[in-house]
Amino acid sequence: MKMFNDKCLLLLLTFSVSFSANSSEAVQSLETRFGKIEMNSDLPSKSSINQLFEELDYQQATQTYLWALPLVSYAQWKNEFQQNLGAKNGDLMLLDSYEDKLGVLTANATTPYLLSFVDLNKTGPVIVDMPKGPTAGGIGDFWQRAVVDMGQTGPDKGNGGKYLLLPPGYEFTDDGSDYYVVQSETMNNLIGFRVLDPDPEQGKKLISSFNIYPYSKKSNPSEIKLLTPKGKAWSGTQPKGMHYWERLHQIIQEEPVNERDRFYMAMLASLGIEKNKPFNPTESQLKALKSGAEIGELIAKANTFAKRFPKARYWSDRQWDKVLQIDDPSQRVENYDQLWERSAWFYEAVTNTKGMMSSTPGLGQTYLGAYTDDKGQWLDGGKNYKLTVPANPPAKQFWSMTLYDIDTRTLIDNKQKKSDVSSRNELKENQDGSIDLYFGPAAPAGFESNWIQTIKGRHWFSYFRLYAPTEAYFDKSWKLNDIEVVN
User: Does residue 189 lie within any of the structural domains?
Assistant: First the structure.
């Protein structure tokens, strides 16, 4: 009987669909995700056309927001260095103190940074004179693709040397000099490195030996100008709202369009953002841009802090992610470019080099990120937490644990003026060699040296870094515990 009823139901459904398809009655409306669309038979009514285009523009704004994250990030950083901190093209900025690093997305709080933005539109090819010593760094284009590593993971292997950086399409005639010749796909580039030597005096020597100058002045290079923020507040976090699009429009004027980006440039043109044209969006374009930036950032937060990439979780029974999911600094795999992996990393962080994606024991760095506690709950600045780091962390150089503010993705700006602990600090150890680290508004008695202060009312996330990770990290024989709530 049941089989008979099922067959009757199937016949009725078939008849209903066929009848509807052949009916002369006009379909009155269609319910969609973005509201009711009035229909004129099988076409949208004239009154619904604007509604459909508004949805198209909103979708274009959301997608281009996510696509442009790495470009806007570097453009904002460069603008802050030059407009806020007084740097000129090619000047070197030293970020060493806690206060000076507060503007950098997910900065390493342990080692000094030396950074220079170079616009090849103004200089032509430039020479980078890299000193010999324990450093990690490189040259990156403005889509945050690695042009070349420098230092220990670069072709100089820590022995120093001269790098010649060429603009896109520039044809270089060998002049007999001993250069590492590299070519960027963008006119603007970030050149920088971190000093890994724990001796401050050796670090100063490395810094003083670094230089950048135009190739045209190779016979008489001037010394690089070294600046510091001197505690002045600045922010490399991507701007919000319309300021995001203004920064994107500004940097697009300075850069060639890569072939892979032409469809996105078409989307931007629909929104009033074009190369060689002023930024003057219409009222409807403004509406789409504002909504796209708002929802785009929400999606960026989900894409970053709740990664759904298949290989994101490093240990299957832990909450730690391998945060850098880009397979190659070029951001390119066999059949596509890693758009969503790129969006995730460059919403929360900046720069990408081969050394940051270490797969060789004893070389480079690796980054593990925790956005939740062991129960999968967001990390709350008003609660107290503990992380037990097992004995013998697999780092040939050192390890560090750093906390960041969710909203700014920069170091927590707490009263303690401290956002990390590392194996370079004097930490209290347990008898088995493990170390208990504490995070919360107030320090636990007796563990002040092992504590980082969090801020009530603000969420945070963390990076656990291993410098020169050893085999125990790669074969997963060493495993980091989760962050746990404590009373």
Answer: yes
Pair of tokens at residue 301? 């937060």
Q: Are residues 296 and 361 in the same domain?
A: no
- Asked if residues 398 and 422 have their Cβ atoms less than 8 Å apart, the reply is yes
CATH of the domain at 152: 2.60.40.1610
pLDDT by residue (tens digit) across 85-139? Answer: 999 999 999 999 999 999 999 999 888 899 999 999 999 999 999 999 998 889 9
* Of the residues 264, 280, 305, the one at which a domain ends: 305
Angle between helices 242-252 and 283-305 (to 10 degrees): 100
Tokens of 277: 């044209």
Q: Do 127 and 174 lie in a common domain?
A: yes
3-state SS assignment for residue 354: helix
Is the pLDDT at 476 greater than 80? The verdict is yes
Residue 54 lies in domain: 47-85+234-305
Joined tokens for residue 361:
């024991």
Please tell me the predicted confidence (pLDDT) of residue 373. 98
Question: Residue 200's Cα: distance from chain center in Å?
Answer: 29
What are the Cα distances from residue 191, in Å, to 159, 169, 208, 222? 18, 20, 16, 17
Q: What is the structure's pLDDT at 25?
A: 53
Judged on CB neighbours under 10 Å (0-12, 13-18, 19+), 116 is: buried
93/228 Cα distance (integer angstroms): 5
Q: Give the chain's domain count.
A: 3
pLDDT at site 110:
87
Domain boundary among 290, 305, 320: 305
Same domain, 326 and 301: no
313-348 pLDDT per residue, tens: 999 999 999 999 999 989 999 999 999 999 999 999
Q: Name the helix (H) or strand (E) containing 247.
A: helix 242-252
Q: In whole numbers, what is the pLDDT of the chain averaged over residues?
A: 93
Q: Are residues 60 and 164 in the same domain?
A: no
What is the rounded CA–CA span in Å between residue 380 and residue 403? 12
